[in-house]
Predict the 3D structure of the following.
Amino acid sequence: MSTGKAQPDIMPFLRFRLDSCVCLEPGLSSAEVIDAPTPLTLRLDVGFDGSLRALLAGRSFSVFHHAERVEDGVRTTLAGGNFVVPGPATADHIVVTSAPISTGAAGSGADLEIAPGYHAGTYRILTHVHADDSDIRPIVSAFHDGLVVEIT
């Protein structure tokens, strides 16, 4: 499991962390190979550290997952959810879980489909997080580009 990249990182004052983005299959803690038509969810773990993290309390952020099918380059954007930064006492670990994401065979209309002519579909998932407030959006953001899932 790799970590993402986030800004700012000006400790001891303020650091935004994107600790992980994992794929969850119902009944399993984590899985990267999913049997269609099993739905999956994506869980993002983020956090804020530093003496100034209270300045972000109450600020809202949006999460987007961009999926690219490796076999043919087809791309789709999946809503990842949103979150509001809690008070400093709990801002060091925030979990954001997407709504269920459907999987299926070619032509099924699922969010993540197996490519036509293939027995499996491999997706690279790029996740980005941005502040909803335009005054902090340029300086508080993050991305994760380390997740690959296979739909069989």
User: Anything to note?
Assistant: The mean pLDDT is 94.
